[in-house]
């Protein structure tokens, strides 16, 4: 079934080059099973593994996932702690397969806020997966898009102080100061758990991204759900403000 779907999207049109995902619904998944919220986050790791492998198999080149937002720091300390521990466990357990699959990982966000152990795990993940040439996986941790935009504005202001002229401030120059500077904007944004909002994710980069919302909670997301989203994307008419040809 999943393989049929994969075969279909491979001939069905353009596969999105860059897919972004707001992985949401872990807490609700756990609550519906009378489990503590961190169990939902743990179950979400399996979904992530399947999604990374599915993206690679489908021919997606860049996958950007929202793992932990700036605002998520305000959750109860116990939940933040569990998420940070899970991040370290994720690195320890998954790094081998990520390398084997040619996945190069980048971590986007204010990583300075992470504790020393989580920071070390993140650095190791970046260093050891460098050079993977099948898929770029961007993990957004301690990420907030408004903060990212302010950071870019500050960088530009500093360049202006150093002699850059105001005319040189273009969309391209602005983009090149965002965390995502190396990659083209996302073609497809997937949000799980049925929420129709952006939650401070990639506000600049999503200008012309196709949005796909599914009711599936993140821990239940899998390869097949990813392929369904891609198939839906292939049916979209991306006009970029122009008239259809
Ligand atoms: C997404 O699941 C994971 C993070 C935001 C870290 P949630 O924890 O937001 O789950 P819900 O939305 O409460 O169900
Ligand atoms: C967005 O989900 C952040 C991540 C998926 C990491 P949230 O659950 O934090 O967003 P809201 O609170 O529903 O907007
Ligand atoms: Mg949520």
List keywords for this structure.
binds magnesium ion, Undecaprenyl pyrophosphate synthetase, 8 helices, single chain, globular, binds 3-methylbut-3-enyl trihydrogen diphosphate, 245 residues, alpha/beta, six-stranded parallel beta sheet, 45% helix
Uncertain regions spanning at least 5 consecutive residues: none
CATH architecture of the domain at 16-143: 3-Layer(aba) Sandwich
Instruction: List the bound ligands.
Output: 3-methylbut-3-enyl trihydrogen diphosphate, magnesium ion
**DSSP strand count:** 6
The name of the CATH superfamily of the domain at 16-143 reads: Decaprenyl diphosphate synthase-like
Rg over alpha carbons: 18 Å
- Share of helix among residues? 40-55%
In short:
With 245 residues, the protein is of the alpha/beta class. The chain is built from 8 helices and 6 strands.
Topology:
Blueprint: H1 2-11, E1 18-22, H2 26-31, H3 37-58, E2 62-69, H4 77-100, E3 103-108, H5 116-129, E4 135-143, H6 145-161, H7 171-175, E5 188-191, E6 210-213, H8 223-234
Parallel strand pairs: 1-2, 1-5, 2-4, 3-4, 5-6
Helix pairs in contact: 1-8, 3-4, 3-8, 4-5
Bound molecules: 3-methylbut-3-enyl trihydrogen diphosphate (2 copies) and magnesium ion (MG).
Residues 23-28, 68, 72, 83, 193, 218 line the site of one 3-methylbut-3-enyl trihydrogen diphosphate.
Explain how this protein is built.
The chain is an alpha/beta fold and 245 residues long. Among the domains are: 16-143, Undecaprenyl pyrophosphate synthetase, CATH 3.40.1180; 145-185, no CATH class. It has helices spanning 2-11, 26-31, 37-58, 77-100, 116-129, 145-161, 171-175, 223-234, and strands at residues 18-22, 62-69, 103-108, 135-143, 188-191, 210-213. A six-stranded parallel beta sheet has the order 3-4-2-1-5-6, with helices on both faces. Helix 1 (2-11) runs parallel beside helix 8 and helix 3 (37-58) runs parallel beside helix 4 (77-100). It is globular and about 55 Å long. One 3-methylbut-3-enyl trihydrogen diphosphate binds next to strand 2.
């Amino acid at each position: 079934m999943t393989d049929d779907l994969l075969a279909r999207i491979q001939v069905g049109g353009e596969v999105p080059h860059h897919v972004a995902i707001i992985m949401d619904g872990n807490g609700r998944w756990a609550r519906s099973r009378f489990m503590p919220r961190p169990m939902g986050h743990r179950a979400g790791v399996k979904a992530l593994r399947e999604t990374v492998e599915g993206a690679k198999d489908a021919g997606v080149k860049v996958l950007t996932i929202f793992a932990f937002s700036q605002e998520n720091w305000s959750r109860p300390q116990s939940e933040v702690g569990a998420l940070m521990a899970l991040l370290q466990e994720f690195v320890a357990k998954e790094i081998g397969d990520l390398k084997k699959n040619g996945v190069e990982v980048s971590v986007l966000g204010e990583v300075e806020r992470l504790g020393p152990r989580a920071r070390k795990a993140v650095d190791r993940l970046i260093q050891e997966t460098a050079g993977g040439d099948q898929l770029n996986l961007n993990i957004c941790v301690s990420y907030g898009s408004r903060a990212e935009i302010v950071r870019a504005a500050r960088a530009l202001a500093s360049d202006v102080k150093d002699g850059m002229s105001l005319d040189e401030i273009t969309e391209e120059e602005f983009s090149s100061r965002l965390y995502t500077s190396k990659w083209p904007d996302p073609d497809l944004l997937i949000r799980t758990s049925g929420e129709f909002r952006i939650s401070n994710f990639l506000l600049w980069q999503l200008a012309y991204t196709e949005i796909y919302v599914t009711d599936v909670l993140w821990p239940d997301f899998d390869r097949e759900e990813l392929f369904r989203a891609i198939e839906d994307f292939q049916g979209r008419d991306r006009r970029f403000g122009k008239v259809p040809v």
